[in-house]
Amino acid sequence: MKLSVILAIFLITLSVTAFQTGLQSDLASLITAERAFARASAEQGTRAAFLKFLADDGIIFRPTPVNGKKWMNDHPQQSGLLTWKPAFAEIAQSGDFGYTTGPYELRKEKTDKKPFRTGSYVSVWKRQKGQWKVALDTGIAYPPTGTPPKVSFTTGKPGLTAKTNGKVKIANERSNLLELDRAFAKEAAQQGTQTAFLKYLSSDARLLRSERYPMTTTHSIRTFLKEQKGVLSWRAIEADISSAGDLGYTYGLAEYLPANADGQLTEYSHYLRIWKKQANGQWRVVLDLATPAPAPASKP
Question: Cβ of 63: how many Cβ atoms within 10 Å?
C-alpha cells in the first residue's frame, strides 16, 4: 500500500516537473523572439522589424488600434532608430500566449547619442505554426525630464495550479473576458475608480500611464489612484485569450472627466488590459496601460 502511494506521488511529481520544464522552455523561446525583434529594429529598421514579427492580424496603437502590417505598409521607413529591451515576460500555461514589457528609446537619427523620447512598450505574443508573432503592440512615453528607473529582468509567477488539458472553449472564454471588462467599467462608474481598480488588480499588477514612470508597487499604484478625482469610463473593443484560458487581454477606448471640469476637458485614451487567472480561478488584471487618444467621432 505504502509503495503504491509513494509511486503515485513520484509520478505526479515527475509530471509536474516535466510540465514546468516545458513551460520554462516556452518562456525562454518567447524572450528569444522578443530580443530578436528588438535586434531586427536596430539592424534593419523599425518598419522591416514590425513587418517581420507582426501577425497578419496583429494590432498596433497609432494611436488608434489599427492593423499593424497594413499601417506599416502604408507608411515609409523613417530615418530614426527605435530600440528596446524586455524587462518582464510572462507566458500562459499552454505555452502559446504571452507578453513582454520594458523600456524603449527613440532617436531622430541613428547616429544621435541621446534619444528624444523614452518610454515603456508592451507586446502581446501568440504562437502561430510554431513561431511567435506579435498580436498587439503599444506603449507609453515617459516624462520629458527626470531619470527613468533602472530595471532588472524578471518573469511572472504561475497563475493556475493545473493544466486545463485543452478543455477551454476559446470563444466562450473570450466573450466572458469581455463581459468581465464591462463589469469592471460598471463598478468603476458606480463605486469609483479607486475602489474598482483595487478590486480587479492583482497584487503584483503593473500600471502604465503616459508621462509617468511604470508603477509596479502597491504603494505607487494606490497613490496614483487616489489622485484620480474625476470620472473614468471605458468601452471594451476586443479581447483574446490563451488556449489554456489562463492569460488574456482586452483593449478599448476610455474617457476621463477630471473633477470640477466640463465636457471640453474630457481626456481620451486607448487602454490595454492584460488579465491573468489566479490560482483560485478568478481573473485579475496584471497589467493596465493607457495612452492618449484623440476624441472619437462618437462617445464610448
Answer: 15
